[in-house]
Amino acid sequence: MTDSLDESVPMQQPPDTTTHQTLPVTLADIEAAAELLEGVIAHTPVEHSRALGTLTGSDVYLKCENLQRAGSFKVRGAYVRMARLSEEEKARGVVAASAGNHAQGVAVAAARLGITARIYMPLGVALPKLTATKDHGAEVILHGHNVDEALAEAQRYADATGAVFVHPFDNADIIAGQGTIGLELLEQLPDVDTVLMGVGGGGLLAGVATAVKAKAREQGREIRVIGVQAENAASYPPSLAADALVPLEKVSTIADGIAVGRPGQLPFTIIRELVDDVVTVSEDALARALVFLLERSKLVVEPAGAVGVAALLEGKLAELGIDSRRTAVVLSGGNIDPLLLLKVIQRGLAVAGRYLTVRMMLDDRAGELATISRVIAESDANVTGVDHTRIGGSLSMGDVAITIDMETKGHLHSEQVLDNLRAEGFQPLIITT
Asked: Region entry Disordered: which residue ranges (predicted)?
């Protein structure tokens, strides 16, 4: 990997209809998938975000697939893939691998279609996703430390038993099912000119790009489609730069739903032709986006589902030189472990300067803690936690170490609190900002 992972990677503009090469999924495939999904999935709402619009200068709308059945868009592709199996294939059962959302999609589809499902999930998978997958009736096997290892084991099981392997993204039916989001979005927001969404293996981005670009061509206009990856799990930028699949050596992100180390071949074929750009966002931006959606939109979204919002908050459209009049962001899922949500909220508040943790060394004498409390109170900050210790390898006799957690009102307020503590002779070491 190189530092270019932090930069956007421009891609080929969609060719005109006279030279457009044949791709593995067409608009007709997606329209057929939409018919198959009628009565199975929810047509999720599109919500206007005045707050994001104010920050970005664009009219911003959120496509709420976090409110979809099983909590994400994945049920669309899973159902289309499994509904098209022959009776003999259905009788053999299906096997899949996922960090959670595809697992639940497959489990829901299997229950509706009367198919036996076996799902491989990585060790350490979020408990709510594990529990929900089991509750939908699937057999769950924990294997490997990431999605790629679980995928390999699921494929081995399929080869050994004859079960049908339902890949999470590298399949034409899966891509067509995910692409139905694009059809819905254009019905709900006909004049959208820019669409952002997360990308892991690429099934969602490839499907939506196929639908949106084809519809735009029919209308004689352009709609930009932008993919967004977590910068610590960004396999598409190097792959697009090399025009070949480039696996990552390591993937590490809170956005487990898109923590995929290698693009899918079919999605890659579509994305390199149709998608305008793929950009990356930081972990801090993901945390900030989740807090933003909770506070301003009243929506619970998992990190993988919030990457598009993170991209807007980080000004990625401006970096690309895009002046979007009407922007849509696909919130792809809302399945987040409450424990992770707690950590992310705290990190998001810290990134926004609204949560501050400091550590100070004090003389062990009466009144020191009272002075600190007074300074913080007069600075209008709120203490939420205090750790006070006299014992430790770095402490001398007569010293005390104190760690204080406090709520602040932004970066300027945090600096004011720190300045006030320094003015009293203390030397606060910032643990979080």
From this structure: 1-22
* CA pair distance 190, 178, nearest whole angstrom: 19
- The answer to whether the beta carbons of residues 313 and 272 sit under 8 Å apart is no
Domain 353-430, architecture per CATH: 2-Layer Sandwich (3.30)
On whether the CB atoms of residues 75 and 104 are closer than 8 A, the answer is yes
Tell which CATH architecture fits domain 27-71+171-346: 3-Layer(aba) Sandwich (3.40)
Q: For residues 428 and 422, is the Cβ–Cβ distance under 8 A?
A: yes
Q: What is the CATH number of domain 75-165?
A: 3.40.50.1100
- What phi, psi does 78 have (nearest 5°)? -60, -45
**What are the pLDDT digits (tens) for 45-63?**
999 999 999 999 999 999 9
Tell me the pLDDT tens digit for each residue of 187-227. 999 999 999 999 999 999 999 999 999 999 999 999 999 99
CATH 3.30.70.260 positions along the chain are: 353-430
């400091």: which residue's tokens?
358
Contacting residues for 40 by C-beta, under 8 A, at least 6 apart: 69, 75, 79, 112
Active-site residue list: 74, 332
Spatial neighbors of 71 by CB under 8 A, at least 6 apart, are 101, 104, 132, 333, 334, 335
329-367 burial, b at 16+ Cβ within 10 Å, e below that, comes to bbbbbbbbbeebbeebbbbbbbbbbbbbbbebebeeeee
Phi-psi region at 330: left, alpha or beta (left = phi > 0; alpha = psi -120 to 50): beta
In the 3-class helix/strand/coil scheme, how is 319-368 assigned residue by residue? HCCCCCCEEEEEECECCCCHHHHHHHHHHHHHHCCCEEEEEEEEECCCCH
Q: Where in the chain is the domain with CATH 3.40.50.1100?
A: 27-71+171-346, 75-165
Helix axes 203-219, 265-274, angle to 10 degrees: 30
Q: Where do we find the tokens 């499994």?
A: 82
Radius of gyration for the alpha carbons in the chain, expressed in angstroms and rounded = 24
In degrees and rounded to multiples of 5, residue 397 shows phi and psi of -60, 130
Q: In this structure, how many other beta carbons lie within 10 angstroms of the beta carbon of residue 422?
A: 12
